[in-house]
Amino acid sequence: MSEGLIRPAVADDVPAMNAIYNEYIVDSHVSFDTEPWTDDERHAWFRRRIDAGFPILVAEVDGKVVGVAWSGPWRDKAAYRGSAETTVVLAPDATGVGIGTRLLDALLEHLGASGFHVAIAIIALPNDPSIAAHRKLGYREVGVLHEIGFKDGSFHDTMIMERQLRS
Question: Which of 37, 108, 130, 148 is the residue whose CA sits 20 to 30 A from 29?
């Protein structure tokens, strides 16, 4: 698979983004959503994120969206406005070749340039590849929430990681 292009997402990307994310809802524990999103729900979500100033990027290879990285509010309280939660997901055939790391790195650059101060990742465990990619980009482990989510008949832990974006 070629390196591909990292670019800001546009509304026309939403169905492809949604299809990638929905695979994680249905086929894994790494999303704590339990029901797939409709494209209409994802379009509304997309518009809210973009309108609020949170970057959303896609990775495109040979004209096909193969990954997405997005940011959103960490919490709703005003004092958290300089913090953003980050997420990166890839199509199964796009994993293991560095696309996710490139996407996340580009998202962090956009967040820093937009004035955000801290990026936070919540990673459902186990997920060694995601932890390694985040560490490679300067995230550090803050802690683990034990058995915080219940999905597919089991409780799952999550790791909280953070990275300072600017001083």
Answer: 108
Rounded distance between C-alpha atoms, residue 155 and residue 167, angstroms: 37
Q: What is the pTM of this model?
A: 0.94
pLDDT digits (tens, 9 = 90+) for 48-77: 999 999 999 999 999 999 999 999 999 999
Q: Are 126 and 82 in contact (CB under 8 A)?
A: no
In the chain, where the domains are located: 5-121
What's domain 5-121's superfamily in CATH?
Gcn5-related N-acetyltransferase (GNAT) (3.40.630.30)
- As separate numbers, helices (DSSP H) first and strands (DSSP E) second, the chain gives 4, 7
